[in-house]
Design a protein that fits this description.
6 strands
Length: 163
């Protein structure tokens, strides 16, 4: 039986697998960012990039799990996966994650995929409210938006987007 951190990492990988398999089924090529950057033309225009870098708030190298690039659907969406099945520290990091999404990640659309049912409801409500305010404030100027989604909401977004 796995305990503590290794159990959480394994659950997080399962969530990442859902994202990867779902978008692969929609025809996206899955490749690491590191491999793609070496030879962009080799992988086409319908991509799910893995381990995508950005510079975090503290000016250190950070990565998100995925970046969707689809020329056919005119999409550039960064996806950050968070799994919290029991009480823990993931939801305590929401303000830091939100600031990274709004200040350091440059894509027009960012999805924070949160599931597991263990995050504090107040923290989830705060994150949703912060996203709504950001989206309202920036929709007119930059069109950028940040969304907090459950796995079901993510699957609905994929099915609607990649018809």
């Amino acid at each position: 039986m796995k305990q503590g951190g290794s159990y959480a990492v394994n659950c997080g990988r399962i969530l990442e697998g859902i994202v990867e398999n779902t978008l692969m089924a929609k025809g996206l090529n899955v490749v690491t960012y590191k491999d793609w950057i070496k030879s962009k033309l080799a992988y086409g225009d319908e991509l799910l990039l893995k381990k995508v870098p950005y510079e975090g708030l503290y000016k250190h190298a950070s990565n998100t799990e995925f970046l969707v690039i689809s020329k056919a659907h005119n999409i550039e969406t960064r996806i950050e996966c968070k799994w919290q099945q029991s009480s823990g520290s993931v939801d305590e990091k929401f303000p830091y994650l939100f600031l990274n999404c709004t200040e350091k990640m440059t894509e027009p659309h960012i999805i924070v995929l949160l599931d597991g049912g263990g995050a504090k409801q107040g923290a989830v409500d705060w994150f949703k409210g912060a996203c709504q305010k950001f989206n309202t404030d920036h929709q007119k100027n930059s069109g950028r938006r940040v969304e907090l989604m459950s796995t079901v909401e993510f699957l609905q977004w994929v099915n609607k987007t990649f018809r």
